[in-house]
Amino acid sequence: MVQSAAGSTTSLVQSVDWLAIAPPVVVAAVALVVLVADLFVPAARKPLLGYGAVAGLVAALALLIPLHGGDRSTFCLTTGTRACSYTADHFTLVIQALVLGGALLTALLSIGDTRKLPAGEFWFLLLSSAAGAALLPAARDLATLVVALEVASLPAFALVGIKRGDRRSSEAALKFFLSSVVATAVMLLGVSFVYAATGTLHLTEIAARLDDVPGQLSTLAQAGVALTLVGFAFKTAAAPFHFWVPDTYVGAPLPIAAYLSVVGKAVGFSGLILVTVVAFPSYADVWGPALAVLAALTMTVGNVAALRQSATRARSAVRLLAWSSVAQAGYLLVPIAAAAYAGDRQIGSTVAYALMYAVVNLGAFAVAALVARTHPGNRIADYRGLYATRPLAALAMGFFLLCLAGLPPGIIGLFAKVTVFSSAVDAGLGWLAVVMAVNVVIALYYYLQWTATLFRSPAEDGTEQSVTRHRTPAPLTVAIVLTAVAGIALSGAPQTVLRFADINLF
């Protein structure tokens, strides 16, 4: 209890909205259950841990349904302002659905592929990372934001290097760890500067106090804003902070590469949106142009590097998807930059594009996991003639690649790109729209080239192709089917996703 000036008392004790925080809490609880159960489950029954993880993620997704109103907050200040540390608004719920759905599909890809991995540790780490990823979009103060970001990131380091004795995996984990640690250090320095200048960690309070920073602290505040944005640029794999991406994706287990490309990216972009739009709107004249330049540089670097991938190089398929994800990060940055000029509603275009990208990119990685079962090298050349041996998988992969390229029948990819393009035009960033258009044309080459490879005759190049059929694990089949059905449904009704571009999510 605290005594007010008038003699009345105000309670510092508040009730917790358990339903609002249920999705990340359930995932974290299941992670602990899986870790303990691993001690008692015999080796022959270790796959049950994977199915338990899947059940936990499904339960967390189901708990989003009663929160669809998007107007719940908890852990709020009880004196003066009503700033809260956890808010389940529409932005939070959409991103939580994305990251939990991405984690669920990653779990489906992983069941059956964890035979040579420590099952208990793998599922515990995956669920722990997913819990942090689900917490981050709800964070409304910098302390919670940083903690959630690290809870999502730290298990991911171990997941990348979990293939014991694999030099490539260890190298990938080390590069990922070092780059992320540098990003975190820079971000924490920026956060400390912002706190010193404003005296608060709550995002809405920071936004109000940055408008009236004392003159002697203005330089400190500017440095804090800049350093915080640089830290998140690492997390989003924006150029020139993208150097860890290709080697990390290639060295990690394939399901974890898929996880990083979607869930890891969603985490970084969610944090970037929160600090720019919610906490630093008064510095829009600084972060707006900076993010516009980063967007142009990122999409160009990613697409040009993807063009240079050789079809016969080992793991070239995963490496191309890695560089493609860098280019896609550039597109995702465009509406955030546009928000500095045209208002918060532009953020909806990033969310709409991220939802499309999550579905089709996870689908592409699912097909890559299928091909890797018979071609461990996972070269683009290994996909030649895939239609002759696995026609449905080839059709699905072709559809996913066309969605990423923005070509019919991948209507959702086309509409999502048009939405992002429109956000740049509406914000007066015509030059950025031109750069994006040029990059979309560049990307057509490698996406269409890979798509054509799927339907070529295996005998055209004079090499023998194995047509031995291997049994596909049911969870992997389910993952491919789910992403294909979702992609087709979204292409048939693109307004389902694109409506996020027309509403205010905060």
TrEMBL record:
Record localization: Cell membrane; Endomembrane system; Membrane
InterPro entries given in the database record: NADH-Q_OxRdtase_suN/2, ND/Mrp_TM
Domain NADH:quinone oxidoreductase/Mrp antiporter transmembrane: 139-442
Catalytic activity: a quinone + NADH + 5 H(+)(in) = a quinol + NAD(+) + 4 H(+)(out)
Lineage: superkingdom: Bacteria
EC identifiers of the protein: 7.1.1.-
Transmembrane segments annotated in the record for this chain: 20-41, 48-70, 90-110, 122-139, 145-162, 174-197, 217-244, 256-280, 286-308, 320-342, 354-372, 392-416, 428-448, 474-493
Signal sequence range: none
Keyword annotations of the record: Cell membrane, Membrane, NAD, Quinone, Translocase, Transmembrane, Transmembrane helix, Transport
Location (main, coarse): membrane
Family note: Belongs to the complex I subunit 2 family.
Quaternary organization: NDH-1 is composed of 14 different subunits. Subunits NuoA, H, J, K, L, M, N constitute the membrane sector of the complex.
UniProt name for this protein: NADH-quinone oxidoreductase subunit N
Provenance organism: Streptomyces poriferorum
Gene: nuoN
